[in-house]
Amino acid sequence: MELDKKVMKNLFLFTTGKAVSIFGSSVYTFAISLYVLKLTGSALNYATTLMLSVIPMIIISPIAGVIADRIPKKWLVVGMDLANGVLFILIFAYASTVNLTLPVIYLSTILLNIFTTFFGIGIEAAKPSLITSDKLIKINSLSKLIDSTSSILGPIIGGIIFAFINIKYFILFNAISFIFSAITECFIDFHLNPIHNNETDYKRNSFTTDLKEGWLFFARNRSILELFFVFVSLNFLLGFSVNVPAPYIINQLMHLPSSSFGIINSMFPVGLIIGTLSVEKIMRKIEFRKLLISMNGLIAILAMLVGLPVFLKLNNGFSFIFYAAIFTLMGIAIAYVDVPLMTILQNEIPQKLLGRVLSIIMSLVKVILPVALITSGALIGKISITLLPILGATIPLFYSIYLLVLHHDKNTLLMNKTEQTE
């Protein structure tokens, strides 16, 4: 009973701390991007601000992974939220004395996302130590729910703040929120699960040796590599087959109203939330690896259908319903991939390597999406728009089928060996 209370306390404090950090970063990035657009009138400067929220994560993630495995994760998690709080206090002080300038905004955006990257790697690597093993699905579901909700509310709240609230006061509010989050995280028990707690056993090596150790575990572990390529294929097909072709078809070819396009886009995070709220029950009934591979294949099939309204020449009403349903189902399926995937990685990667391996996976996966977006954009107009989604989803679909067959064969072999032993 006492252990259950500690677990629930950790879950509550984890949810509060991560929600403040993720929402604060998401809302600020969007609001400050709009501020830059108003300040300069330049779409390039606006895009640069958004880009600076992604690039630091790709570059810093491997470094953050090594540090997350080197120092107590509590120091990293609390320290990064505190650093963000201090950063916003400094920005507020500067903005109160002198108007915000572009170089200061760029620098603050870079620092915010560096600190948030360290926080994210630290909290992800710490999860198995925060709760009992049977609650690992629960904490991953809560984590995904926070990410999904912030993707909906971040731009909305950011837009409201930009329209109605002086950006300086929001900066001050963000500073207080991050400091409050750091204080609450001080009360999290980062050593609740002794099975996943080996920080005291860490052997200190050089930075490059630590990074190499994480890379070698990642590169030589076939099971982890299979999951990594599922993650890569998912991000590629979303970028190549959905993120570029779908807006082009809906806006340029189908000529759906902008309000309809907005609703269709909102169905994706809605699906993510539905999937996140239901995935725990599904994972109690279906083997994790089978679930995520099947869902990856389903997403590929859904992506192939993106050009179908053009091919069938559907009217606007049917096209709207079709795309709303497709985007909702994709959101649900992605939650059914992400939560089992993270749970398997946390169970199969040794705790002493978890930060490094997770950071390598996240960094490499983040590179795939812009490559897919650029490639897909370059091919629009050169090949049929109805074939483009199919082209991007073919390899992920066949890879998912291959893994399902492989998984079935492994299970059959294991059952035969068990029967022979008995």
TrEMBL record:
Keywords: Cell membrane, Membrane, Transmembrane, Transmembrane helix, Transport. It is found in: Cell membrane. The chain crosses the membrane at residues 12-37, 43-68, 75-98, 104-125, 145-165, 227-250, 262-279, 291-312, 318-337, 357-380, 386-405. It is a multi-pass membrane protein. Pfam families: MFS_1 (PF07690). It comes from the Bacteria. This is MFS transporter. It comes from Fusibacter bizertensis.
